[in-house]
Design a protein that fits this description.
The protein is built from 16 helices and 48 strands. The protein is α+β, with helices and mostly antiparallel strands. Helix 12 runs antiparallel to helix 15. Pfam families: B_lectin (PF01453), PAN_2 (PF08276), PK_Tyr_Ser-Thr (PF07714), S_locus_glycop (PF00954). It is a single-pass type I membrane protein.
């Protein structure tokens, strides 16, 4: 009885297996032919096991089933969906096969067609194959010719060798479509493709058909508005081609050794994803728009994003334009853009040089809707625009040729921090725009270097410079919470000097200048935001949280690295001349950033020192040779740095320190305690209590005393200071006593009666 039961069960099992002979057969093949069914949850796999075709349910939607193509290394990464708009609900008995008319069809459990390739074909037999590129191809079995492919009907993923296209005759596009959400593959709001107008090719992301993001024109090598495409190794080979027979222009990328794809997410971001085989996940190497600042036409017509920092942005009118709606503009609504301030004259003739002129705006993602006129050199391009009253701007990138604009200038980006990228744009202005006052002339220079803000924008951003937004006051002006500095006491020379110096410097320990304003006799600088404010506020304000020694030592090292860059590693030698705690700003992670370059001196070639009859700086930080004789060099900055080091260790300000028992200045007090081998007693009590730090604190005091020696030749260079701080130099020389050793009532060094100096006294408030 038992044997008969076992035999019956075995027979039933064998019948079940042979009733589905294609199950194992299909798993080992990459094709489906007529008469063969792919049933949920079966798959077919590409020849090299890169992609699978099969059924899936997105996250959080187990009752919905879809047919799709996905990576074998990451089966949740779906690259193509057949029935995104028509899911199979609670149906796990669907199947895929080839119909009698040669189409590929997806049927539900009651044999109703849910999706089909739906093409007119005369073939009687066809076969579908999944390739290692991820392309699903339906072929005529007799000829082998493709009659349909998934690459021509993409979902939200752009794979290598796929062609995203635009037909210049029919305007028919092959484009990506975003999913409705991360778990819903219905067609969403966003699409990605290329657009060919007037022989200019650009990439676009559209939001319900409206431009959402734009790449800028293709110049034969790259998209000119997206310089990151040409600098990333993963983007090399991105190319544009054309099928002359059909008039189709297409965008494609080549196959790689590594797995990669461009994906359009449901929020409208196009992302370059590269597979990390060790971590088994996708890394994002590029994304657009990567912030709100990159959204199409954000600032309206005739305007550009003047500053963008962590999605905080300002818009600026182009040169010669002003806000169309000042009330909206002042409230931070820039969508109405700008309008021309003075109308064009359009009276240029070839025999005279009067009339409209062009203002050059360097390094831009040029506006949308250009008209191309390629058969011209740059001079012809300019003349052609000038004699045409409807031409309001032109550009001449050699790889593209002459481009005109006759409508609004929309979606301009100015790459002020990345000179050499983008295209120079020439904006047509009335000649009276070039007849300007001295301050206006400086604005023209600034506009070529830096984004300009209107005074009204900055006034509204600070509630009319309300005291509640005031961060502090320094020697040359006030600092407000909305990321900029007002400089009522600073002259145009100092203002221009700061802008021109810092705009050419890039270092993690130098503050980043975002833009500026010269208007109504006001001079304002817009800096990146420093949440922890200035070093002097943290050191000398008793209401602030004390800095522990780890932070203080890191700040000392960071300031030294910034100084080394100024003195030795930048293209030009720069002496700051006003180094002090109020000119050191602290970011969110307490990294120090040197600021306020209004008094900085620039040297070229091998020059590294200078002399001036106009001594400017701050009492307590100036080196003796500079205060008395006007001589300055790298070593005068080293002296100021040494004073700052002592202040950071002690927690007291040099200019107001006085030891009543010994009549010693802060420098003299440090020297006395160090020479008595009691250097730890000089440190602020809160940091001297740790048993693990005395040696480092005493060593820093020693280094600081070397920096404040009387004669420049005795002071270490900035590079040597850094080597001492990092213990690359272990043994330190013995310092001479500092020249300013006694308190303010008994100065050992006085400014001569006949010297001309403009020493500035700085407020104790933070800058």
């Amino acid at each position: 009885m038992t044997n008969n039961t076992g035999f019956t069960q075995l027979l039933f099992l064998l019948q079940s297996i042979f009733s589905l002979p294609f199950l194992c057969f299909c798993l080992e093949r990459n094709t489906i032919s007529s008469g063969i069914y792919l049933r949920d949850p079966e798959t077919i796999v590409s020849p090299q096991n890169v992609f699978k075709l099969g059924f899936f349910s997105p996250d959080n939607s187990t009752n919905r089933r879809y047919l799709g193509v996905f990576y074998t290394v990451s089966e949740e990464t779906v690259v193509w969906v057949a029935n995104g708009d028509n899911p199979l609900i609670n149906d796990f008995s669907s199947s895929l096969t080839i119909s009698k008319d040669g189409n590929l069809v997806l049927m539900n459990g009651i044999n109703q067609t849910v999706w089909s390739t739906n093409i007119s074909t005369k073939t009687t037999a066809s076969i579908v194959q999944i390739q290692d590129t991820g392309n699903l191809i339906l072929r005529d079995l007799a000829t082998g010719n493709p009659i349909w492919e998934s690459f021509s009907h993409p979902s939200n993923v752009f794979l290598p060798t796929m062609k995203i296209s635009d037909n210049i005759n029919t305007h028919e596009k092959v484009a990506l479509w975003s999913w409705k959400s991360d778990s819903d593959p219905q067609v969403g709001n966003f699409s990605f493709g290329i657009d060919v107008r007037n022989d200019i090719v650009q990439m676009f992301i559209w939001n319900n058909g409206r431009p959402h993001w734009r790449s800028g024109p293709w110049d034969g090598d790259t998209f000119t508005g997206q310089f990151s495409l040409s600098t990333s190794p993963y983007q090399e080979g991105f190319s544009i081609g054309m099928d002359d027979r059909t008039g189709t222009v297409f965008l494609t990328t080549p196959e790689r050794r590594f797995l990669n794809m461009h994906a359009l997410n449901s929020s409208g971001n196009l992302m370059l994803m590269v597979w990390d085989d060790q971590r088994k996940n996708w890394n994002t190497f590029w994304m657009q728009p990567h912030t709100e600042c990159n959204v199409y036409g954000l600032c309206g017509p005739f305007a550009t994003v003047g500053s963008c920092n962590n999605d905080f942005y300002f818009c600026s009118c182009l040169r010669g334009f002003e806000p169309t709606n000042r009330d909206e503009w002042g409230r931070g609504n820039w969508s109405s853009g700008c309008e021309r301030r003075i109308q064009l004259q359009c009276n240029y003739t070839s025999s005279t040089d009067i009339g409209d002129r062009f203002f050059r705006m360097e390094s831009t993602n040029v506006p949308d809707s250009a008209v191309k006129f390629s058969n011209a050199n740059e001079d012809v391009c300019r003349q052609r625009c000038l004699v045409n009253c409807s031409c309001i701007a032109y550009a001449y990138p050699p790889k593209i040729g002459c481009m005109f604009w006759t409508d609004s200038l929309i979606d301009i980006r100015h790459y002020s921090s990345s000179p050499g990228y983008g295209i120079d744009l020439y904006i047509r202005l009335s000649p009276s725009e070039f007849v300007v006052l001295e301050d206006e002339l400086e604005k023209v220079k600034l506009a070529e270097e830096f984004p300009l803000f209107t005074f009204e924008t900055l006034a509204n951003a600070t509630d009319q410079f309300h005291g509640n937004n005031l961060l502090g006051k320094g020697g040359f002006g006030y600092v407000y919470e909305v990321h900029f500095q007002r400089l009522p006491g600073q002259g145009m020379d100092e203002f221009m000097n700061e802008v021109m110096v810092i705009s050419k410097l890039q270092h993690r320990n130098l503050v980043k200048l975002i833009g500026c304003c010269v208007e109504r006799k006001e001079k304002l600088l817009v800096y990146e935001h420093m949440p922890n404010k200035s070093l002097d506020l943290c050191l000398f304000d008793p209401s602030q949280t004390n800095l522990d020694w780890t932070k203080r030592f890191s700040i000392i090292q960071g300031i030294a690295r910034g100084l080394l860059y100024l003195h030795r590693d930048s293209r030009l030698t720069i002496i700051h001349r006003d180094l002090k705690p109020s000119n050191v700003l602290l970011d969110l992670d307490w990294n120090p950033k040197i600021s306020d370059f209004g008094l900085a001196k620039i040297f070229g070639g091998n020059q590294d020192h200078g002399n001036t009859a106009r001594v400017v700086g701050t009492y307590g930080y100036m080196a003796p040779e500079y205060a008395v004789e006007g001589r300055f060099s790298e070593k005068s900055d080293v002296y100021s740095f040494g004073v700052m080091m002592l202040e950071i260790i002690n927690g007291e300000k040099n200019a107001r320190y006085y030891n009543y028992d010994k009549s010693l200045s802060l420098l003299g007090y440090a020297w006395k305690l160090w020479s008595e081998e009691n250097g730890l007693a000089f440190a602020e009590e809160s940091i001297a209590m740790s048993p693990d730090l005395p040696a480092q604190i005493i060593r820093c005091t020693h280094i600081a005393l070397l920096c404040v020696q009387q004669f420049p030749k005795d002071r270490p260079s900035t590079r040597t200071v850094l080597s001492m701080l990092s213990h690359e130099i272990v043994d330190l020389p013995i310092p001479e006593p500092p020249v300013f050793a006694v308190g303010p009532t008994q100065p050992t060094c006085q400014v001569g009666k006949n010297s001309t100096n403009n020493v500035t006294l700085t407020s104790i408030d933070g800058r």
